[in-house]
Write a structure and sequence with these properties.
With 292 residues, this protein is mostly helical. The protein is built from eleven helices and no strands.
């Protein structure tokens, strides 16, 4: 689909329509489900403005709504921003040096984060997160991670052989990333994590390609779980929140017992409900309305 964006007259329309029906219907169902859980626990409805901000992917622009209703959905705002600019990013990658575009994306992200960390200290927030974090979680502050993902995808599509230098870089970069996470500077941390994840991905691909490993039954199950992972992501936190609330009412004093009880009860239910969401909403609507 991505490869046809530039080549076909309706490529961009096809891309946006398919992205919409692949992502939005299941997302809207998760909002309804999250509001239901929200109502059960505090016994009140979320504000209409909060719900609408989630429906239109605007909650990530508010310190008050960023983590409300369903805290896991904060990332959807950043992802949708990326989907909007993806055709432009793809065009730039195709028309220019891929390394130059990747480096430029990293520099843009570093510049935004440095500016925010330097000049955003005086911004006071009464919401769930700081204004500094809110700004950093918009696409300019996360662009490097998406750009690195595109860069890897392009390398894989062209079957470019990866140098052994990947083996040498992965672990030192990981060590540097962890050091920066603990001791700063903070504006470097997420960018370095993006680089670390990219190197680990390339490392694993290199390893599997060179060793020609057979896929085990457990790996097949993980691949199947990957199919429903988006639906699982959308609804897992409300379910965990609900059972945490139930367990808290039982007043069990053992913290670890509480934790394992919640996980043991929640995971099968998350798995079952996300399978239903995947089958009857996510894939059903996508297959019905997508442009092939």
């Amino acid at each position: 689909m991505y490869a046809n964006i530039e080549k076909e007259p309706l490529g961009i329309k096809k891309y946006y329509q398919n992205r919409f029906f692949r992502i939005v219907p299941a997302y809207w169902v998760s909002i309804i489900f999250s509001c239901f859980i929200y109502f059960i626990i505090p016994k009140k409805y979320p504000p209409a403005t909060d719900v609408l901000s989630h429906v239109f992917f605007l909650h990530g622009l508010s310190v008050h709504y960023f983590l409300s209703i369903n805290g896991a959905l904060w990332s959807m705002v950043t992802e949708v921003q990326f989907y909007i600019i993806f055709p432009l990013m793809l065009y730039l990658y195709r028309k220019n040096s891929k390394i130059i575009i990747l480096i430029a994306s990293i520099l843009v992200t570093l510049a935004v984060r440095y500016f925010v960390s330097t000049w955003g200290q005086d911004l006071q927030s009464t919401g769930s997160i700081s204004y500094t974090a809110l700004i950093n979680y918009q696409i300019p502050g996360r662009l490097s991670e998406f750009s690195m993902g595109m860069f890897i995808a392009i390398l894989l599509k062209k079957n470019i052989a990866f140098s052994r230098i990947i083996y040498l870089l992965t672990f030192p970069v990981f060590a540097i990333t962890m050091f920066v996470r603990m001791y700063g500077p903070d504006f470097l941390s997420d960018v370095l994590f993006g680089i670390t994840y990219s190197l680990i991905t390339l490392f694993l691909i290199n390893y599997y390609n060179h060793h020609a490993l057979m896929i085990t039954n457990w790996q097949k199950k993980l691949l199947n779980f990957g199919k429903i992972s988006y639906s699982f992501f959308l609804i897992h936190l409300p379910i965990l929140t609900f059972f945490s609330f139930i367990i808290s009412k039982l007043q069990i004093q053992n913290l670890w017992l509480n934790f394992f009880t919640i996980i043991i009860i929640s995971f099968p239910i998350c798995f079952m409900l996300s399978g239903l969401l995947y089958k009857y909403i996510e894939t059903f609507i996508y297959n019905k309305y997508r442009i092939s």
